[in-house]
């Protein structure tokens, strides 16, 4: 019983933190907000064109809303349940490949 209550509370805290971050009010997803270092740029290069187009649309819309000092109507906000990590798995793979390459170059 306590474990179930803890899981519900943990999920509630995740949703609260997600909503407090504020990016969802502009229609952005978590992966849209990643800092674009070399690993993220390589992961973006590997994405299909339609995913890049969707991401660019969300970013341009968010910039426009920010300049207008407004947010989307609440029904258009990105919901916690609908937010999928489309870029993070690819970034993890790129980091793994980079570390493996650095290790190879160091040893051979």
From TrEMBL:
It is a peripheral membrane protein. Keywords: Electron transport, Membrane, Mitochondrion, Mitochondrion inner membrane, Respiratory chain, Transport. Transmembrane segments: none annotated. InterPro entries: QCR7 (IPR003197), QCR7_sf (IPR036544). It is found in: Mitochondrion inner membrane. Gene3D superfamilies: Cytochrome b-c1 complex subunit 7. Pfam families: UCR_14kD. Coiled coil: none annotated. The keyword Cell membrane does not apply. Belongs to the UQCRB/QCR7 family. Component of the ubiquinol-cytochrome c oxidoreductase (cytochrome b-c1 complex, complex III, CIII), a multisubunit enzyme composed of 3 respiratory subunits cytochrome b, cytochrome c1 and Rieske protein, 2 core protein subunits, and additional low-molecular weight protein subunits. The complex exists as an obligatory dimer and forms supercomplexes (SCs) in the inner mitochondrial membrane with cytochrome c oxidase (complex IV, CIV). Component of the ubiquinol-cytochrome c oxidoreductase, a multisubunit transmembrane complex that is part of the mitochondrial electron transport chain which drives oxidative phosphorylation. This is Cytochrome b-c1 complex subunit 7. It comes from Chilo suppressalis. The lineage of its organism: Eukaryota, Metazoa, Ecdysozoa, Arthropoda, Hexapoda.
